[in-house]
Amino acid sequence: MKNALYAQAGGVTAVINASAAGVIETARRHSEQIGTVFAARRGIFGIWDEELIDTAAEDPDEIARLRATPGGAFGSCRYDVRTIDEDPALYARIFEVFAAHDIGYFFYNGGNGSMDTAWKLDQAARKMGYPLISIGVPKTMDNDLLLTDCCPGFGSVAKYIATSIREVGLDLAAMVQGKPKVFVMEVMGRNAGWVAASSALAKEAEDDAPHIVLLPEVAFDHEAFLARVREIAGRLGYCAVVVSEGIKGQDGRFLSERQVEHGYVQLGGAGEALTQLISRRLGFKYHLAIVDYLQRSARHLASRTDVEQAYGAGRAAVEFALAGLSGVMPAVHRLADSPYRWEIQPLSLQDIGNAERRLPPEFIRADGFGLTEAFRRYALPLIAGEEAPEFRDGLPRFARLALRPVPKLCPPPAYPLPL
Amino acid sequence: MKNALYAQAGGVTAVINASAAGVIETARRHSEQIGTVFAARRGIFGIWDEELIDTAAEDPDEIARLRATPGGAFGSCRYDVRTIDEDPALYARIFEVFAAHDIGYFFYNGGNGSMDTAWKLDQAARKMGYPLISIGVPKTMDNDLLLTDCCPGFGSVAKYIATSIREVGLDLAAMVQGKPKVFVMEVMGRNAGWVAASSALAKEAEDDAPHIVLLPEVAFDHEAFLARVREIAGRLGYCAVVVSEGIKGQDGRFLSERQVEHGYVQLGGAGEALTQLISRRLGFKYHLAIVDYLQRSARHLASRTDVEQAYGAGRAAVEFALAGLSGVMPAVHRLADSPYRWEIQPLSLQDIGNAERRLPPEFIRADGFGLTEAFRRYALPLIAGEEAPEFRDGLPRFARLALRPVPKLCPPPAYPLPL
Predict the structure, then answer these.
(1) Residue A193 is part of a domain; what is its CATH number?
(2) Contact B238, B182 (CB under 8 A)
(3) What residues in chain B have per-residue pLDDT under 70?
(4) Which residues from A are below 8 Å from B239, CB to CB?
(5) What is the mean pLDDT of residues A185-196?
(6) What is the CATH number of the domain that holds B334?
(7) To 5 degrees, how large is the angle CA A224–CA A225–CA A227?
(8) Does residue B40 share a domain with residue B135?
């Protein structure tokens, strides 16, 4: 009977810990086949440094509470591994640590890069004859993984963004007075516009916020944008704009790549650039919101669908492992839009790799400033349902793990993991 | 039997509409004493322009739903009135409209300036012999009204800010890698630091976020701040800072009063200034969140205590009116900290006027970077309890009023309300 190792990687989400709970609780229910579930601190770094946690030593109530806890309970990392042929020392160390702790199952919970890592470990283990089942557990608020209907983490940020812009829209409508006012909300999304797009779910009528959604998939056109802002703000007295941090101009450069004259300092991002443009060219009042990490941490407003898929991906990962599958990822497969039905299927990690899924053209309105009904049909089920965390003294009561280190059995690494 | 007029003023909050529901529903229960409840569009502007709504024509379910709807359902305004001696034309017009619609009760729902307006109307009516009961209904997320224990609107923004920084704190803790990272969250509060202070409620242990809270009540000390950031980020790998938009330097100027060299453009606010300082002087990574209107609109995370006080203030306003009180405001009076008990009492508007209540010294930690246990005892009860709005299709289902205009009975005003 082999032990399992679970680790987290990439930007954390509101629900990555729900996947952790899914892995740990499911493995515990199969204690006749899986021994201890260890967790690595800070993803691949914790393996390199042999910094492991014994999850069995944690209070089961706290493990259950991971389902409702944002962040990454064991620490995450950003690290792209090379193949075993390119970086044999990395794999030698990994398998040294795995062997010392009798690891037979590896669950790597992350986005594109992490699915690639799980795949490379699977391949390396085969090549070295190390008996390992390596499974990728998908996670990314960016929703940019290929081949899965959606990514755990996206539904919750989508619900948060759509709720927030609906709420702000009511604020703006109430405060019309004097010069028109433009509200700009900058959201995450460097290359793919899924998060910005989700704001459009808030619209019930044409004049509801958001009035303009700017996506990285559409080259930014200053004049068309200003004309649209002028039309909407002139008519309503206000205009709500949601902008993806990654929008680019016609020249292909990020709007946020600006330098102050003489300056060494890069000031602000896409939202700041837009508000300055609006102020300079239209003379309108403006307000800027940058939701930054709040959006991917807002577990208090998670989508129940998303939580179920995140937990379900963790559970399925263990079930696939017990069925002998390796080099796969539990993917969400959509059976029907409405009522929404889905199931989890194993997909080979080889086909997922480091590619990014962007918004397809049929989801983007012809004018480039909004989303289509097809997008709505796709995304609305993903934000359905609520599953609030427990509250205590007015605030969410999140998991507090003991995170007691497992005694090290290997010699320390000869050098730190090279960055 | 006289009619009533309800109007909203000042920056809206997550719960000002709960006060509207309290006024309207309570008046309906006293239909033997109060006739129609009219609402003015955009506060004093709607009175001047005779733009009134008959709330009796609204679906009672939608009126009830106002309890869970952010924004200002009838439109708000920013307008400081002068006295009747200084501006007789204003009062002549107001009482012309009031008389035409047989208004005997006036409920003005707003902050400092609005309490002053309600008081001046009371005084003007007495002077002119117009039979009017004028009541102020307190509302401000800034929590800066005098003499009331707290202001409806504050508890909800406090809950939102504290929840958000607790969530982000977990995100930051999970992502430690490479250079230290500083997260700055800019919140509202031009002169008083109540909102920034509320972030401190998220702390359960010394190393929990927020690590530094910057208040307008404390002159900003660059070097002390940088030393503190260096210490915390050096130890933990990250540091979470919450900054009030209104912090001022030792020279008494707002930190956000910066000009780009040669520039006509004022870029960014306090948060932007801090991140640039951190980047330039410490070379750390940084992230900036500006929650802007999201914080005062976040009805999805309202404090139940706050909702009950907001609704209760509206209800009490009507009850005071029926008892013959005028020139008063329903104020929250604290009976006990823990368990928290409160009641609503009438206070004369004369004593509230245009003053601002700032954080008292005993709430601010000696080093100026945090809050004391006394603040915690004060503020923790105000964020207690949840009262989520109804959700439909994954998003809050907010009130949609018909807002059908009441036929005008007066000649149009000779000129627009002078700004």
Answers:
(1) 3.40.50.460
(2) yes
(3) 257-268, 353-354
(4) none
(5) 95
(6) 3.40.50.450
(7) 65
(8) yes
Query: If we measure between CA atoms, which residue out of B104, B108, B117, B105 comes closest to residue B138?
Result: B108
Helix extents (H) in B5-144: 16-28, 44-48, 60-65, 88-100, 112-128
Tell me the residue range of the domain where B24 lies.
Answer: 2-140+299-353+386-396
Residues B304 and B277 in one domain: no
Residue B225: alpha-carbon gap to chain centroid = 29
Predicted local distance difference test score (pLDDT) of residue A257: 61
Under DSSP, the state recorded for A265 is P
- Residue A410 resides in a domain: no
d(CA B258, CA A289): 19
**Per the CB < 8 Å rule, is B297 touching A391?**
no
For the beta sheet containing B34-40, the strands, ordered from the edge strand earlier in sequence to the opposite edge, are B52-54, B34-40, B2-8, B103-110, B133-138, B328-337, B340-348
Q: Which of A139, A171, A281, A305 to mutate to test the interface with B (most CBs of B within 10 A)?
A: A171
Query: Chain B residues with CB inside 8 Å of A385's CB?
Result: 394
Chain A residues with CB-CB distance to B167 below 8 A: 14, 70-71, 294, 297-300, 396
Using one digit for the tens of pLDDT, what is the confidence trace for A263-278? 444 445 899 999 989 9
A371 within 8 A of A213, measured Cβ to Cβ: yes
Closest chain B residue by Cα to residue A306: B394
- Is the Cβ pair A293, B45 closer than 8 Å? no
* B417 part of a folded domain: no
Among A10, A128, A158, residue whose Cα is nearest residue A78: A10
Number of domains in chain A: 2
- HSE (side-chain half, CA atoms, 13 Å) at A24: 29
Contact B289/A294, CB-based, under 8 Å?
yes
State how far the Cα of A364 lies from the Cα of A194, in Å rounded to an integer.
11
Q: What is the pLDDT of residues A114-169, one digit of tens each?
A: 999 999 999 999 999 999 999 999 999 999 998 899 999 999 999 999 999 999 99
Are B171 and A395 inside 8 Å of each other by CB?
no
Which H helix or E strand runs over A347? strand A340-348
Cβ of B171 and A297 within 8 Å? Answer: yes
What residues are paired with B336 via a beta bridge? B341
Q: Which of B240, B297, B251, B289 is nearest to B269 (CA)?
A: B289
Name the catalytic one among A49, A54, A122, A142. A142
Burial B63-86, CB ≥16 within 10 A → b, else e? bebbbbbbbbbbbbbbbebeebee
pLDDT tens for each residue of A402-411: 999 999 999 9
List the one residue out of A181, A331, A185 whose CA is nearest residue A244: A185
Residue A144 bears catalytic tag = no
Tell if the CB–CB gap between A385 and B398 is shorter than 8 Å. no
ipTM > 0.90 (yes/no): yes
Give the residue from B23, B10, B6 showing the smallest Cα distance to B101. Answer: B6
Our CA-based measurement puts residue A388 at a distance from the nearest CA of chain B, in whole angstroms, of 10
Q: Which residues of B touch A77 (CB under 8 A)?
A: 177
SS3 per residue for A158-224 = HHHHHHHHHHHHHHHHHCCCCCCEEEEEEECCCCCCHHHHHHHHHCCCCCCCCCEEECCCCCECHHH
> Nearest 5°: phi and psi at A17?
-70, -20
Residue A73 and residue A200 share a domain: no
- Best interface-test mutation with B: which of A139, A242, A275, A300 has the largest number of B CBs within 10 A? A300
**Residue B97: inside a domain:** yes
> pLDDT, tens digit, for every residue of B229-272?
999 999 999 999 999 999 998 888 888 765 443 444 444 589 99
A193 and A208 fall within a common domain:
yes
* Position B404 in a domain: no
Tell which phi-psi region holds residue A242, choosing left (phi > 0), alpha (psi between -120 and 50) or beta. beta
